[in-house]
Amino acid sequence: MPEFDYDLFVIGGGSGGVRAARVAAAQGARVAIAEESRMGGTCVIRGCVPKKLMVFAAGYREGFSEARAYGWDLQGGEFHWPVFRGRLHEELDRLEAVYRKMLGASGVEIFDARATVADAHTVTVGAVAKTAKHILVATGGRPTRPDMANADLAIVSDDIFHLEQLPKRLLIVGGGYIACEFACIMAGLGVAVTQFYRGAQILRGFDEEARGLIAEMMREQNIDLHLGTNIVEMAPESADNTPLPIGSDIGGHASGRASSEVRSSSEVRSSSEVRASGGSDGPIWVKSTNGHESVFDTVLFATGRTPNTDGMGLEAAGVTLGRRGEVVVDKYSQTGVPSIYAIGDVTNRVNLTPVAIREGMAFVETVFKGNPTPVDHELIPSAVFTTPEYGSIGMTEEAAREQEEIEVYCTSFRPMQTAFAGKPWRVMMKLIVSRATRKVLGCHIVAPGAGEMIQLAGIAVKMGATKEDFDRTVAVHPTMSEEMVTMRDPIRTA
Fold this sequence. Notes:
This protein is an alpha/beta fold and 494 residues long. 28% of the residues lie in helices and 23% in strands. The chain has twelve helices and 25 strands.
């Protein structure tokens, strides 16, 4: 009789957990995976994939007017959200089925249930205990609402894809990539978008020059962006257009929440419901820190995410959690309990799907192939799918300047395609170069298709390319990206 029921039990059916389960099973391991929601996790079901499909949908709006400038005799169409939403969920169902098929073909046993950790080698699935030589926690993260009264009148990013209809007036609170992406998406779909961000500039942590250009371009799209601004109060609007007092109950929403209570969307209502979790059925009155009062059909909080470790039994099993509830792991994704590992957003290292997949692969190399493999978190390319997109790899100008002497090569211009159509859009290409080694320390692109461009630029930067390597590369003309290899003189040094 085997000592354990499984060699590996994976908790969480997102991209990282599924990849680790499949690859471990391919090595002959007995593997099980448990997922309490839908197989595919945040990225496939309520993140990267549906969001990118919405980016595509929103992009057609400008395409109609540009086509007319190029001589096409056509009229702009009307966007029908129910039609798109139906096709969207058909695609998500298809992708989930693919994930399940791949797991089944690999011999992985699937549990469609919540799993918690009982001890170093025991997982409880429902009321059943299962033992495993190794446990991998890959439960991801979730969006959170801020700590304020009536916060449950608003929706979070998970809920966008389940809206029955698009709002006419939308307030987005937050200035990170999720907030900015959805601001551009919804504006592209014809929604009147207002955005509040309490900071001085959106996209904190990214390159300052890129952030400024994106904010400028968002305003060109009629996004009403308010910096240094936050919500002071919010309440359901009454029939006589006055906000109802806190503590009243309108439309089934108890509006008096304890100030210490912060809830995730999954705690409000199942994400499989058509009606978005939380959210008001009627207009919402909002008072902001700048003293203005406004009414919106929908408020979206995009103010942060937290690791899914609540009620998992991890601390009782000896696993250390960090300040934000993240699982603390070493460079091999191992916790303080030798048999328990964690990967992906639940560790709050680099919260990107490809990183979770890489972490899952490294885990299998370490544990099942006898090849200890640390995870490489250096020089990871990323993209923000605003309009225009933002692609980046490496250091920002601000961070590089603090580290060493640098040269900055940057150009901003109106691209040929949209300039011909009379559009005001601008793009930016930027290289940050070490004066000592000549290596490109950072690359930043703000342009249509920047996500595609930065993937290829990322190869060069990861390999340690110098500015002269870029210079020796012949330009592809006429393209926007040719500017990456034609910038000869630095615009500033530091």
